[in-house]
């Protein structure tokens, strides 16, 4: 990213404001497995990432990613369909660019979904886990470098990285829908190699329940701006050493088959977020 960070963020925000004047106070970051959530939105407006100035475009061919604004049961929501990861070579600031732009457009509540490996032996494949904390092991933080006081403070408090109120609302909604959810701590790793069994034993010892390669940078940037965060992991596999072998194909397959429950949860939860 070239130039002053806030200036670049504000250029993207100005482009988006020209596309529509009213921007939702709730947003959700989704993987491709949850595309059905988007098609169920009413009064949909789609903006391709490639059209937004400086917006990082995911490298996977055919999945350029797009920003969608629509209504879920009458409630306006922004969906970021597709995200970029540190392991693709993007900088931490590029990884959080979208969150910051939405923050400038008035975002108050951000739902970060992800696929993760289950470290907690009580978990099973397909389980949805509400994040109650994270451990940043990515070796990077989106707030390094000069602080932009317009975005947030130099040393933001991370005591409540994931909102208790949003988590309780999600738990209550899941119970009403009969969707099983658990709670846990997400360890954010750089990737893209999966962990070794020894690394998973280490992660368990330091208090992690899940291992994944996204989310922490976005959560940090959101908290920096005072945005409340709900994190939801789909356990797509048990972590390294806990099952015979790991593959991206399994991550995609289980992510897809668990997407129905996640989509139902989101559809009912989002209109309830104040
Ligand atoms: N480790 C890290 N990231 C992941 C995993 C895993 O086992 N599964 C899905 N994303």
Question: What does this molecule look like?
Answer:
The mean pLDDT is 94. The two termini are 34 Å apart. Helix 5 links the parallel strand 6 and strand 7. The chain has helices at 5-19, 35-39, 92-95, 97-104, 164-177, 197-205, 216-224, 248-257, 259-269, and strands spanning 26-30, 42-48, 66-72, 75-81, 109-118, 128-137, 181-189, 210-212, 228-238. The chain has one domain: Rossmann fold (3-Layer(aba) Sandwich). It has 274 residues and is an alpha/beta fold. It is globular, with a radius of gyration of 18 Å. The structure holds hypoxanthine (HPA). Hypoxanthine (HPA) binds at residues 115-117, 189, 194-195, 211-213, 236-237, 239, 246, 251.
Strand-helix topology:
Elements: H1 5-19, E1 26-30, H2 35-39, E2 42-48, E3 66-72, E4 75-81, H3 92-95, H4 97-104, E5 109-118, E6 128-137, H5 164-177, E7 181-189, H6 197-205, E8 210-212, H7 216-224, E9 228-238, H8 248-257, H9 259-269
Parallel strand pairs: 1-4, 1-5, 5-9, 6-7, 7-8
Antiparallel strand pairs: 2-3, 3-4, 5-8, 6-9
Helix pairs in contact: 1-4, 5-9
The structure holds hypoxanthine.
Hypoxanthine binds next to β5, β8 and β9.
Largest sheet: 5 strands, mixed, barrel
Unreliably modeled segments: none
Radius of gyration: 18 Å
Spell the H/E element sequence.
HEHEEEHHEEHEHEHEHH
Span between N and C termini?
Answer: 34 Å
- Which ligands are bound? hypoxanthine
CATH fold-level assignment: Rossmann fold
| Overall residue-averaged pLDDT value | 94
Number of domains: 1
Count of DSSP H/I helices? 9
Oligomeric state, counting identical vs distinct chains: single chain
Structural class, judged by helices and strands? alpha/beta
Q: So, the CATH homologous superfamily?
A: Nucleoside phosphorylase domain
Secondary-structure arrangement, i.e. CATH architecture: 3-Layer(aba) Sandwich
Strand order of the largest sheet: 5-8-7-6-9
Helix coverage percent of residues? 25-40%
Number of strands: 9
Text of the CATH class: Alpha Beta
